[in-house]
Amino acid sequence: MEIFPTPQAIHQQPVAGWLSRLTVADGLLAVVLLAAAILRLANLDQLPLSDAEATQALAVWQFWQPEISTVTPGSPAYFSLAGWLTQIFGFGDGLMRLIPALFGVGLVYLPWLLRHRLGTQGALVTAVLLAVSPLNSAVSRSAGGDSLAMFALLLLFIAFIRYQETAASRWLYTLFAALGLGLTSSAVFYSGLVTLLLAWFVHSRLGLSLFVAGWRVEPTETNWRQGTAVGAVIFILLSSFFLLLPNGFGASARLVGDWFQQFGGTVSLDPLLALVRYEPVLVILGLVAIIWAILRSLPLALFAVYWLSSGLILLLLQRQFMANALLLTLPAALLVGIMVNAAWRRRWDWFSGSTAVAGLAGAFILLVNLARLGRTVQQNPQEGSLNLLIILLTIIFIGLVLYFVAAEDSTAVAQGLLLSILSFFLVFQWGTGWWLGQQGANDPRERWVSSGTDVAMQELSETVHTISRQLANSDTQLEIATTLDVPALTWYLRDFTRLEQLNALPLTPTQQVFITEANAESALASSYSGTDFPIRHTEPIPPSERSETAVYDTFRWWFFRESTAVVPVERAVVWVRADLLTGQP
């Protein structure tokens, strides 16, 4: 007798089929994406917008104000994508950072599209390195186009490889779409594009190919036209805020000029030092991977080496363009992922596991005792001998373990060492990324930060709104004048329609509230009552101008977030007319 499936069984069949295709690697990727989302999306509005962020956010806000006729976007792509969200969710610090954060999470997923070349383990490791990257997480939590540029750059590279391998039109369209997005995102995209082209030129001149047997797909005329049309449409729509802001094309063109302006200038190693400070795992394993790639002569690994080398050259030419440090994380993460996949291809055994456990335990012992040594030496140099002895014994122990295991199986040593280094720096990078995103993004003692808005800026804004409700019985009608040209301050006072920007104080001030810089004396002191607020921190005194303990100060900042560096603070005074406070005319 024929038995027909029940409606419930028919309904459940597609779900079971979909679940059956999931693998352990898919589950691990989901965990990595979740970690990336937490690092980038948690407490987006905790810190006030910096001046650079406020400039981007103000352009979006000004577009929707009928009394403002001219708007100049900083990043057209960011402007176009964030502009529509504000009409649904309103204007807020967290919302202005949402688009970059989402693209930052998307960047972590992109290596998975190249897992057939990186290997499953290599793609996962690359995704993990990008997920916990402090530089990538920090830029993903900043209003602007740098996060979009990084996403577009890696997507363009992956789409090119996939199209050459499959000849599928969708990858050609994706390539041009990524190009259109990148050209409207940020000046750092041009750095990435130049380094990619330079790497491709060197790679081709050496007779190497990214593809099997030199396979290369030439787009048909129809595909070329369609792909170009897709890229042009994306470029036009994002440049012009979906045709609502024609002068956005000028903003896209200015990105090229901004990029060229980064050449020359004073000699500075800040971008390179920032890479070493925030991405030590990529620096350490990247150097090992460069040697490994040259010895193995794998085409994709060698291309990553040339891409990384091109980025280093550009970093030295554009000496003060900090975003170039961010650019180097892409080829470095890909290169490390390829190397790790090759090392972990062999089945693990107890030799590999014991090496990984010993290496990880030793790394944490070294870290704890190094920190204790630094703290102890500060108080009493003689008491640091015990910690120094423990450090030396730990190094000897790790060396002996590696020696004896390598005598039996050198591959196991490579597997275990890679796992222990990645595990240790996973914790380190996560902590650094969390600090940089949650607390340090506006602290100029961090090498990545040049200036930042003080958290008291939000308190100043709340104070002014409270005064407005008390004196004007309105949240927006208070008479305010300011002599400060601070984008962050303008952003937090944007709702006040009677806000005036003055070059100097008037001879007979009449406004209800003035906001000025904190001077020792002020013409307002006789008729106004003032309260000061710290609003901005600028770059601290360079180490060369500080004491001889600059190296130790850096060490203490890295380990304990304690610093003796003097950070200049700009303060503002909120002046309220005295007769309004007393109620007298």
Count of DSSP H/I helices: 25
Overall 3D form: globular
Q: What proportion strand? A: 5-15%
- Secondary-structure-based class equals mainly alpha
Low-confidence segments:
1-13
Structure summary, number of beta strands: 6
Strand order within the widest beta sheet:
1-5-6-4-2-3
Average pLDDT rating:
85
Through-space gap between termini: 99 Å
**Assembly status:** single chain
Instruction: Report helical residue fraction.
Output: 55-70%
**Rg of Cα set:** 28 Å
Biggest beta sheet attributes: 6 strands, mixed
Number of domains: 3
Question: What are the defining features of this structure?
Answer:
585 residues, 3 domains, globular, mainly alpha, 6-stranded mixed sheet, 6 strands, disordered N terminus
Summarize the structure.
The chain is 63% helix and 5% strand.
Q: Would you write up a description of this structure?
A:
This protein has 585 residues and is mainly alpha-helical. The N and C termini lie far apart (99 Å). The chain has 3 domains: 9-190 and 204-262, no CATH class; 350-442; 454-582, no CATH class. The protein has a 6-stranded mixed β-sheet. Strand 2, helix 23 and strand 3 form a beta-alpha-beta unit. Helices cover 63% and strands 5% of the residues. Residues 1-13 have low confidence and may be disordered.
